[in-house]
Amino acid sequence: AIVDHALAAIISSDEESLITEFNPAAEGMFGRRRAEVLGRSVFEITVPPRHREAHEAAFRRMRAGGDPHMIGRRVEMTAMHAEGREFPVEVVLWRTAVGGESHFTASLTDLSERRAAAEQIERQREALRQSEKLSAMGSLLAGVAHELNNPLAIVMGRASLLEEKCDGAPELQDDARRI
Fold it and tell me: Phi and psi (nearest 5°) for 22?
């Protein structure tokens, strides 16, 4: 009952890596029915083909007593849904002796939503950074425009006075207008 009501996918296998337990959360996560997977290789059901050889080799080492650092630790891996799509999972693996045989049980959590949320947060942070850059550039340009307008206003005023003083010289008035 505990395994059946667990929110995490729980998959157990025997020493030959054949599935002996596949809880309802695992059914939902992997898109496969318990009756369909019992007695089949855990690697065939959960691991993408490109990763299977490495996982099988690690399992053989654990079964022989090696790779103790894998037991009881959170490890991120890529899993495979029945439809063939891959998704990230966090796995905690432990070994249990049952009737003189070793069984390996994995608790798996789908990280897809967490990763999507993290990517969304990163996109929002990047958009905020760009917005802050544009705001800073706008402030800088406003300051530069203000600094240029003050001396230009003086030049404009002086050119206007020069134009009035050159009343009898049309060539000088044209030059003052151009300024």
Answer: -150, 100
